[in-house]
Specification:
Number of helices: 10
Structural class: alpha/beta
Oligomer: single chain
Strand content: 15-25%
Bound molecules: S-adenosylmethionine, iron/sulfur cluster
Order of helices and strands: EEEHEHEHEHHEHEHEEEEEEHHEEH
Radius of gyration: 19 Å
Length: 327
């Protein structure tokens, strides 16, 4: 088992398949976009992903989520999904939804039951302003398709002040007839995304707004949930807030992250990374490296969040851009 120095058991691994994307979300994509992505030679191959996953499964990992960048633009994504489906784990996917229709049968074959789709706006023009892509109707159609095919769907919406903040109630209204779980995400600082605390809409503000218009029941959160869950009574779906900035949930964190170039991060905000891919290619044992990475995990948010008079100083955070970590 992978247990850190605070006694937290780590049984959930998020693997980024690549650091590229077909969208250009303003809050995610670094403004000075590096040219190209990691050279193919630096990126984990499908076989390496499979092998490293097998090592993690033997160390007690029970859930693997594939993410990116956009995981579905990787050409061998179907082969990767199928190869990981042989492990006794819950296999999951986070995607921007634009290419889901091409992979729906493979998702079923791979035993995926639940898909997280990012959708930050229910207004096609606003969607374009955020993603810089005209894919709103495609993404919406693919969400329909997932629900029709019996998948559990979580919608991820990053809430940005003065941008899509005014759509919070529309997302809640969507849960009246659609059996999906909307997750409002507080905007987080990463390399190159010009984060500003004034753009964060807090958990409290989101829930206060919703409670002003709806009767809202709190749903019990599962042990490792990052989201605080709620429901409007009688509605098909539910909603939640991921409050990384205003109320972090690190106390029972069970997550590890593997970047597409094979670096292990023990936290979304960890400065330190442990290279697993180079030692693996030299034929070395990566288990001690994984264990030491887990032991070194800091208590909260990579030990990197420094506040001055309650204002977070993002320039003191050393990290990659979100697209290169794998959200
Ligand atoms: N491309 C896929 C997608 O959009 O779902 C997977 C990768 S994306 C990095 C994973 C999640 O991270 C998305 O839900 C996205 O909205 C979220 N995300 C990206 N940048 C973020 C930020 N600065 N703050 C909060 N969430 C962010
Ligand atoms: Fe791409 Fe997802 Fe980042 Fe948007 S949030 S740019 S879809 S990786």
């Amino acid at each position: 088992m992978l247990i850190d120095s605070f006694g937290r058991v780590h049984d959930y691994l998020r693997i980024s398949l690549l650091d590229r994307c077909n969208f250009r979300c303003t809050y995610c994509m670094p403004h000075d976009l590096p040219k190209g992505s990691f050279a193919y030679a630096k990126r984990m191959s499908a076989e390496e992903i499979d092998f490293i996953s097998s090592v993690f499964v033997n160390l007690g990992i029970k859930k693997i989520r594939l993410t990116g960048g956009e995981p579905l633009i990787r050409k061998d994504v179907d082969a990767i999904l199928l190869s990981l489906s042989k492990y006794p784990i819950e296999l999951a996917l986070t995607t921007n939804g634009s290419l889901l229709h091409k992979h729906i049968d493979i998702l079923k074959q791979a035993g995926i039951k639940s898909v997280n789709v990012s959708l930050d706006s229910l207004d096609p023009e606003k969607f374009y302003a955020i993603t810089k892509r005209n894919e709103f109707h495609k993404v919406l159609a693919n969400i329909h398709l997932l629900l029709h095919e019996g998948f559990k769907v979580k919608l991820n919406a990053v809430v940005l002040a003065n941008e899509n903040e005014n759509e919070i109630l529309n997302f809640v209204q969507l849960t009246r007839d659609w059996p999906l779980h909307v997750r409002f995400i507080e905007f987080m600082p990463f390399d190159g995304n010009s984060w500003n605390q004034n753009q964060v809409v807090s958990h409290k503000k989101i829930v206060d707004l919703i409670q002003h218009h709806y009767e809202v029941n709190k749903i019990e959160d599962a042990v490792h949930d990052t989201a605080k869950k709620y429901k409007v009574p009688g509605y098909e779906g539910s909603f939640a807030v991921i409050s990384t900035i205003s109320e972090p949930f690190c106390g029972d964190c069970n997550r590890l992250r593997l970047t597409s170039d094979g670096k292990l991060k023990n936290c979304l905000f960890s400065k330190e990374e442990v290279d697993l891919l180079s030692p693996l290619r030299k034929g070395e044992d990566i288990i001690p490296l994984i264990e030491s990475c887990v032991i070194a995990k800091k208590a909260e948010r990579g030990g990197q969040f420094n506040f001055e008079n309650k204002i977070l100083q993002p320039q003191t955070i050393k990290n990659r851009s979100m697209i290169a970590i794998g959200g």
